[in-house]
Hints:
Blueprint: H1 3-14, H2 19-28, H3 31-40, H4 50-70, H5 75-95, H6 99-106, H7 111-119, H8 122-141, H9 147-186, H10 196-213, E1 216-224, H11 227-234, H12 236-253, E2 259-264, E3 267-274, H13 280-291, E4 296-308, H14 316-336, E5 342-346, E6 350-353, H15 360-371
Helix pairs in contact: 2-4, 2-7, 3-4, 4-5, 5-6, 5-8, 7-8, 7-9, 8-9, 10-15, 11-12, 12-13
Domain GGDEF: 215-347
Pfam families: GGDEF (PF00990)
Protein name: GGDEF domain-containing protein
Amino acid sequence: MTRRADRRLRPERESHFDTRSKGVIFSAGGALPLLLIAVLEPTFLRPGTLPILVGIVVFTVVTVGFTVRVGTLTDRQFTVLGSGGMLGVAVCAFLIADPSGARAVTAMLAVVPALAASGSPRRVTLSLTGAAVILAVALSINGAEGVVRYVAAGAAVTTVIVPALLIAAMRTSLESVTERLETLANTDPLTGLLNRRGMLPEVEALLARACLTRKAVVVSLVDVDHFKAVNDTRGHAAGDDVLTTVAEAIARQVPSDAVVARLGGEEFLVLRVAATVTGLEEHILEAVRSSCDVTVSIGVAQADVRPGSADAVVDVETTLDRLTYAADRALYTAKTSGRDRVAFALEDPVEWPLGGISSRRDRLEVLRRGAS
């Protein structure tokens, strides 16, 4: 393999493991030094408990091997391996003869809840954290007397809960920031509609839905008439108000499963799945007239969507550009015919592969997204 090919493949290898799986691999190695110490220093463990430690080490090796093999653990796999790992830590702590060594090993019970907080659902995190707290408290108060028992129990609870809480808070904050950045990247800041980048996944789902339902895709280009004159005579602030008002008028008229986006400038795009072209565009014209003192021209193209080869590579951007170009021709007709009107065009059928949604569950999900 050449160096160039190796560089191309390296990102895929690095992304094979998620953070949670990497944590399981690295943290599972904690039992191996215990076995080495127990062999070198027989008094380190309680008498006759070395075979139990060997069994824990075997489970650790199996955990590491399984995680390396699957790469990214499912929630169920992580729960099973994490629970087994915590039980192994608790048993190791109990096997150690020196109380100070046992307390040091007990602190490792905080690892699994912290890993769960980094990437598991809340119910998994809460259940593993609760189990870790119970084990840590039981091990900490074992052999302690009087007030020391309560101090040891409090320290054990703190050791387990604080890292999990901190990581959960960091994860929530990161997800919130990521969501805001994604919203900014996918929407037009002026109108709040989708931009081209944001609408591509929605268009892909819409094409799949049209293919499944054997309906057509209707593409409407809405362009504000004489918008340059608005900016030149009334200023750009007034132009922004016009664009916002037109966007709101369009959004009020389209069905909930339609894709509405601002392409840029004074041009808006509406895509929907429909058996036939209805009077939606006329309603948009009237809504704009009643909302502000401008008019719009609309070009509409309709294309049937047929199932294509599952092996075919179809670019959603190329398909969208083809449909938009057909609607743009109709928009030109509306403009040259006097503006403030709708013009229609028919486009040749579009093929869309359904290889990625071949299962019944995936098909239902596509249809559900259209109905929501």
